[in-house]
Amino acid sequence: MVASASALALALTGCLGASPPLTFDLGSSGGGRVRRRSSRVVVITLPKTVQTYDSQRVVVREPGNILSYLPDAQLSDTLPRLVQTRMLQTFEASNFPNIGRPDDQLRVDVTLATELRAFEIDAGSGNVATVTINAKLVDERRGAIFASRTFTAKTPAVLDPTAAAIAALDTSLKDVMGQIMQWTAQTA
């Protein structure tokens, strides 16, 4: 019994002694005023994605399409929630009128539905921070997609220090969010 208690105490000490991962945040893209084609209400939904990206971990794509994660690093929230929040902030910073989330209880005209297809450091391509998001504009009154486009940005990156890798991903994300905002303003 004493041996079991000692082993448990030792195991807990090892777990508690490990340092927690560094937590990183992503920013929104600041921009000037954006001109809209219409005044319809646009709602930004939570991005869809595969399980690999639906976490707080940061993906590294190794040669041979082997996926791993940046060690000792995590995002401040799950990636889809973080991207939805930063995208909304990007639109708001540009004074994009009539923008919100589904839980804002707005009378929705258009839904901006997105899919995170890549948010990773591509080590197989020479350490490139790659962000790819597919965006669809859905006319809620007709229940039909009226526009769809895929946006990609790539930024040179390094894996060490980890903060530099996250900064490169943040730069790529801001570029993609800015592209999506301009496209939405012209199309919706």
Descriptive report:
There is one protein chain. Residues 1-15 have low confidence and may be disordered. α2 crosses α3. The strands form 2 sheets. Strands 2, 3, 4, 5, 7, 8, 9 and 10 form an 8-stranded mixed beta sheet that branches. Strands 1-6 form a two-stranded parallel ribbon. With 188 residues, the chain is an alpha/beta fold. It contains 3 helices and 10 strands; from the N terminus they run αββββββαββββα. The termini are far apart. β4 and β5 (66-69) form a beta hairpin. The relative contact order is 0.20.
Mean pLDDT: 89
User: Spans with pLDDT under 50 lasting ≥5 residues?
Assistant: 1-15
Q: How many β-strand stretches?
A: 10
Order of helices and strands: HEEEEEEHEEEEH
Helicity, in percent?
A: 25-40%
Helix segment tally:
3
- Structural class call reads alpha/beta
Radius of gyration: 20 Å
State the end-to-end distance. 69 Å
- Give the overall shape: elongated
Proportion of beta-strand residues: 25-35%
Profile the largest sheet. Answer: 8 strands, mixed
Which keywords apply here?
single chain; 3 helices; elongated; 10 strands; 188 residues; alpha/beta; 8-stranded mixed β-sheet; two-stranded parallel ribbon
Summarize the SSE layout with pairings.
Blueprint: H1 2-17, E1 22-24, E2 42-44, E3 48-49, E4 59-62, E5 66-69, E6 73-75, H2 79-93, E7 99-100, E8 110-122, E9 128-139, E10 144-156, H3 162-187
Parallel strand pairs: 1-6, 2-7, 2-8, 3-8, 4-8
Antiparallel strand pairs: 4-5, 8-9, 9-10
Summarize the structure.
This protein is an alpha/beta fold and 188 residues long. It has helices spanning 2-17, 79-93, 162-187, and strands spanning 22-24, 42-44, 48-49, 59-62, 66-69, 73-75, 99-100, 110-122, 128-139, 144-156. The longest helix is centred in the last third of the chain and has 26 residues, at 162-187.
